[in-house]
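Before anything else, study the sequence and fold tokens given here and see whether the fold suits the sequence. Record follows:
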Amino acid sequence: MLRQYELVEKVLDYDPNADEAMLNRAYVYTVQKHGTQKRASGDPYFSHPVEVAGLMTDLKLDQATIITALLHDTVEDTLATIDDIEAHFGPEVARLVDGVTKLSKIETMPENERAAENLRKFLLAMSEDIRVLLVKLADRLHNMRTLHFIKNPAKRQRIARETMDIYAPLAERVGMYEYMREMQALAFRELEPEGYATITDRLEQLRSKDGGQVDAIALKIKQRLAEAGLKVEVSGREKHPYSIWHKMAERHVSFEQVTDIMAFRVLTDTEEDCYRALGILHTTWQFLPGRFKDYISTPKTNGYRSLHTSLMYENSMRVEVQIRTREMHRRNEFGLAAHWAYKQSDKADGQVGWLRDLIEIVEQSHDAEELLEHTRLAIYQDRIFAFTPKGALFQLPKGATAVDFAFAVHTDLGLACVGAKINGRHMPLRTPLSNGDVVEIIKNPGAAPQLSWLAFVVTGKARAAIRRAVRLKERDEVAAIGSKLFDEIAARVPAKIGKKAIRGALQRLGMDEPDDLMYAIGAAKISDREVMEALVPGCTAGIEEDEHWTRRERAISIRGLTPGVAFELATCCHPVPGDRIVGIRRKGETVLVHAIDCLELASGVDSDWIDLAWGNRSVGAVGQLSVTLYDRPGTLAEMAGIFAQNKANVTTLVQTQLDHPFTSYDIEIEVQDVAHLNRILSALRASDAVAQAERQ
């Protein structure tokens, strides 16, 4: 731990004008306020803010940031207040301490709330003052260095996961690669101890076998550049364990197949020397096409600048080389923290320069959604973030749709979802979301999830809720069919059926509620004969077993039922409202609805038949057509125009035959009823573009 005079001297070394007395007061203040508090390591608690302040001095940050680091836990963990901080250290420090305190409070929120809000709060804090974020990142880095002292494994895992998912990517976002790498390494060791141990062991084996190969290659590169008159510094290292692990997972390769484990850095004096060095290396060793990146002429959004290339070194060894100036290197390792410190030395352009950089980061907006949309974080490549119109942020797997988003917000919203606006535009519910999308869910309290949604939702919560809702709806609708069938069964028994008879039947069948009986009838889990016998015992005596019990005197309306739930429209004949229909009922299956003239009905002669009728308000189905067009320009467009004029939506169009001068298509279109379908057929047959049009 830094002693008081050591901390003050470090600040005065790079900022001789710093207020020494105020720095001393801040050090004493944090020691007094934290008093006898202890950390998990057993060290005095005040050692933590002192170490965080030390990290800030390494970045040569201004006095207010150093004092904020010293005081950042006093408001949350002691009796000190923001007013006390302002009274002793001024409004600027009070504002910064308040910002860090608000970020820290997020960590005490429940897991689901914290996961949804953390990133947005960090981005908003960064847009207000980058120093708030810098202190918080240093706070987390020091906490990760002492993570192993926490005895609770679940708590260690939670902190490590949060570090990997939130803090390390944010460090990268603001260009603090040194912080990012150390956070990732420490979190990786906790989250994947076996993977960490395996990779570090393999790296150790490589070091023992290569006989100083890394140093030898670095020396060779330096000598070659020196021969060309360039004065450079060259250093080499193996890539970090987490970087190797991530590459193995990303490329689906083994450790042996990761070819660029060694990386070398060349530091020059000027940008011109960077490009000269690149040319010399490319003419000395073969470079790998597709592996060269020029981040000097086109910097990353966080300000990172460097040349990256990969070379085929001797013995077919691939090595990665980064070339940059010394000033670029300083900026690259500590990102905006380094830029802040640099600009503070520029009296005329200090605060203005920082604001200009901040505006560049948030893409000329303080809107967190817009900032997130432009953020490219490798760690988040398997997930996306989307916002509600009010700015609440939700984390979803990559490939998630508006339906997944609706269920992530609230199960009730998912259940009532009927449509979605993505970034202000109406889009299909199956549309995959992208990072930064603003999603507005359109709901209808009377709506219900569709079975077809299961084909595109990706979250477990959405899938479970949809299945549960469909099962409940299916039971209700099958029971509704069963209730209509029960009326006909009851009409065939030699007695008037009332509530008493139904209660007796339930008792004989071992059922609890009338709905159980109706569902069993609708799902063909019980025969008509069994129902009649349960209602009036002995009433079926003398009746032959093979008599067809399902012959109906009246049709059963299917109005209000949902296709795919209580019944399915057969795809062989595509019945539409207005066709005469019949239902085929098999045990344990939904009712399959056919047009009465469907040839497939011959295969269902041993099944339970139900005479059905469309409800009075039944509208909408899919009709199937076979259309043959003349094979000449414009005929397909003319057919599409006929569909559009008749307000029919084409769902499927498949070319089935090309036999000059004709082209045949199988087409599925959404129509209101059989009259609508017949009008479309008439319009097609009247067209000069159509040789033949028939309903399938």
In short: Residues 270 and 325 are 6 Å apart (CA to CA).
